[in-house]
Design a protein that fits this description.
The chain has 253 residues and is α/β, with parallel strands linked by helices. It has a single domain, classed as GTP cyclohydrolase II (Rossmann fold, 3-Layer(aba) Sandwich). 34% of the residues lie in helices and 24% in strands. Strands 1-2-3-4-6-5-7-8 form an eight-stranded mixed beta sheet, with helices on both faces. It is globular and about 60 Å long.
């Protein structure tokens, strides 16, 4: 669809300096940023740099064409992923990264049924304390890839005795359908040096290594265990293969 809206040349001049084209198998990823983003992190203000990206079938460096399409694309109905960068992420010898899957209930409402909200804040805290790193916030990963509405249905099944894995399977989904390929392309555009991954999930490690990235180390992230999420965390270990070296998860058995 051709661009029909004309913009003030100064507006385009400002915007195109902050847009980067990353080619993909399906078209292009348009990465916008960095944008200064001071964040209230556990009572302290920490400065991050924020990027957001958009998948598009059209591959062009005429960014005015892309901007012109946005007002008619109804992007508010769709989720876009983003990344928070701290410190000199491109050049630092050692940087932490976290691939964090969106969790509407945990990240926004503070749900205790999972540990997602805790992991989000703790990952940001680790990155800030480390001095350099990036948190990738992956918007199409709700419910391990099944979406928010389906996740609500899965929660109803969980309230009736199904664990996280079986609830997804009973709804016709696989246990975990998340894909990290776009995030990995963005990571490669921002940094080429080794990274340390903050995760308990071996599938994330495999995704990075299979893409040829140099993963120097892994930092596990367990915590916020309660009566509400203990079975959920056990299922992660026993059925989804999450790694636990005996620290912080379900130690009160």
């Amino acid at each position: 669809m051709p661009a029909t809206k004309s913009f003030d040349p100064q507006v385009i001049s400002i915007l195109e300096k902050k847009i980067q084209l990353i080619k993909s198998d399906e078209g292009a990823i348009y990465l916008v940023g960095p944008i200064k983003l001071p964040v209230n992190l556990l009572g302290e203000t920490v400065e991050f740099q924020w990027y957001c990206w958009l998948n598009c079938s059209e591959v062009t460096e005429d960014f005015e064409r892309i901007v012109a399409k946005l007002s008619s694309a109804n992007l508010a109905e769709l989720q876009q992923s983003s990344v928070l960068v701290h410190g000199d992420f491109q050049h630092a010898e050692n940087a932490l990264i976290r691939f964090h899957s969106i969790c509407h209930t945990g990240d926004i409402f503070g749900s205790k049924r999972c540990d997602c909200g805790y992991q989000l804040k703790q990952s940001m805290k680790h990155i800030a304390e480390h001095g350099s790193g990036a948190l990738f916030y992956l918007a199409n990963h709700e419910g391990r890839g099944i979406g928010l509405f389906s996740k609500a249905l899965a929660y109803i099944l969980q309230e009736n005795g199904y664990d996280t894995v079986d609830a997804n399977l009973q709804l016709g989904f696989v246990d975990d359908s998340r894909d990290y390929s776009d995030a990995i392309k963005v990571l490669k555009a921002l940094r080429t040096k080794p990274v340390t991954l903050v995760t308990n999930n071996p599938r994330k490690l495999d995704a990075l290594r299979n893409a040829g990235l140099d993963v120097k180390d892994r930092v596990q992230l367990w915590g916020d265990v309660s009566e509400y999420n203990e079975n959920y965390l056990k299922t992660k270990i026993e059925r989804s293969g999450h790694l636990n070296e005996g620290e912080g998860c379900c130690d009160n058995d």
